[in-house]
Specification:
nucleus, 2 domains, globular, 287 residues, single chain, Rossmann fold, seven-stranded mixed beta sheet, 15% strand, alpha/beta, 7 helices
C-alpha cells in the first residue's frame, strides 16, 4: 500500500501554477470571443491546478497542450486587456480613481504622491497610471511591456522599510486567477505586509492604507463557498474595513481600508449557498 500524500502542502506560488507562455494572438476579438477565451482559460487552469496537487503529471501535460491550443497565457492576457480597454468601458481603475478622488484632492499643490502597487498590471495607460498624484509600481507574471515588472507577488521580497511599502494595493481580477482557495487567502494576508503603517509627512493629509479588490461577480454572487458576508468576514479578520462597494452584473468592486484591527480566525471551505448551478470559488484562511 502506498503512503498517503500530505494534504497540508504549502500553497503554490502563483508563478508555479501558470503554464509557459506560448504564442501571441493579435487578431481583434469580439466581446463574446473575449469572454469565452477568458472563461475557457480559467477552467483549464483550475483543472491544471488540481492535477498538480494530485501529482498527475500526465494530466498536467495534457492540459498544457490544451492551454497552448487555446492560445496560452498571452492570449488570455490579450483578451483581458481588450475586455478592460477604454473602448469597452472595462478599465476598473476608473472606479478606483472616482472612489479615492477626495484623498487625491488633498494632494493638490503638494509634492506628495500615493504609492500604489498594481498586481497583475496589463497596461501603463489606465486611469490609475495616468493620475499625477499616484506613483504606480506595476507587476505581472508575464510583463506586457516597459513599465510593468515581471514578478510574482507571492515571491516579491518583503519590504525592509516603509519607503518600500504602499498606500494602496490593487488586486483587480487577480484573486480569481489564483487556482486554489488557500493560496487566495495567503495572497490577501500578504497584502497587509506591503501596506504602509506610517502617516503622510503632512498632518493635513489623511491617507488610510487601502486594498482595491475586483472580482467577477459570480465568484461571490453565485458561489457555493463564498458570499458577500463571508468575504467581508475574511477581510475584516485580516484587519480591513469595507469603505466602498459596487456590484454590476459582471464585476464586484470593493475598496478596503486597513484598520489594523486583526482577529486570528480560520475560514474553511464550507457550503454556504447550495445549488447545482453554482460555482466552487472559495477562499481559505488559516491562522
Amino acid at each position: 500500500m502506498t503512503a498517503k500524500k500530505s494534504r497540508n502542502k504549502r500553497p503554490a506560488l502563483l508563478s508555479h501554477t501558470r503554464p509557459p507562455t506560448v504564442r501571441k494572438h493579435h487578431a481583434a476579438l469580439s466581446a463574446k470571443a473575449t469572454r469565452n477565451l477568458i472563461r475557457s482559460h480559467h477552467t483549464l487552469m483550475k483543472l491544471r491546478a488540481q492535477a498538480l496537487k494530485s501529482d498527475d503529471n500526465a494530466l498536467v501535460n495534457k492540459l498544457d497542450s490544451e492551454i497552448e491550443a487555446n492560445g496560452g497565457l498571452e492570449s488570455y492576457q490579450l483578451a483581458s486587456k481588450i475586455g478592460q480597454s477604454q473602448e469597452r468601458g472595462g478599465d476598473s481603475s476608473k472606479v478606483l480613481i472616482d472612489w479615492i478622488n477626495p484623498r487625491l484632492t488633498e494632494l493638490r499643490n503638494t509634492p506628495f504622491k500615493l504609492r500604489v502597487l498594481e498586481v497583475g498590471a496589463l497596461s501603463t495607460r489606465n486611469a490609475c497610471s495616468q493620475n499625477e498624484h499616484l506613483n504606480v509600481t506595476r507587476i505581472d507574471l508575464n510583463s506586457q511591456g516597459p513599465g510593468i515588472l515581471k514578478q510574482d507577488f507571492m515571491e516579491r521580497p518583503l519590504p525592509s522599510d516603509d519607503e518600500n511599502r504602499f498606500h494602496l494595493i490593487s488586486l483587480s481580477l487577480v484573486l480569481n486567477y489564483v487556482p486554489d482557495p488557500l493560496s487566495r487567502g495567503e495572497m490577501l494576508k500578504r497584502c497587509v505586509t506591503f501596506l504602509t503603517k506610517s502617516p503622510p509627512p503632512s498632518s493635513s493629509i489623511s491617507i488610510v492604507p487601502s486594498l482595491f479588490l475586483v472580482l467577477p461577480a459570480p465568484c461571490v454572487a453565485n458561489s457555493r463557498y463564498l458570499t458577500q458576508q463571508r468575504l467581508q468576514d475574511i477581510l475584516c479578520s485580516i484587519g480591513f474595513s469595507l469603505a466602498k462597494n459596487k456590484q454590476t452584473s459582471k464585476l464586484l468592486y470593493q475598496l478596503w481600508e486597513y484598520t489594523g484591527n486583526r482577529e486570528s480566525k480560520q475560514f474553511k471551505k464550507e457550503m454556504l449557498n447550495p445549488g447545482v448551478t453554482r460555482n466552487n470559488f472559495a477562499i481559505i484562511v488559516k491562522k
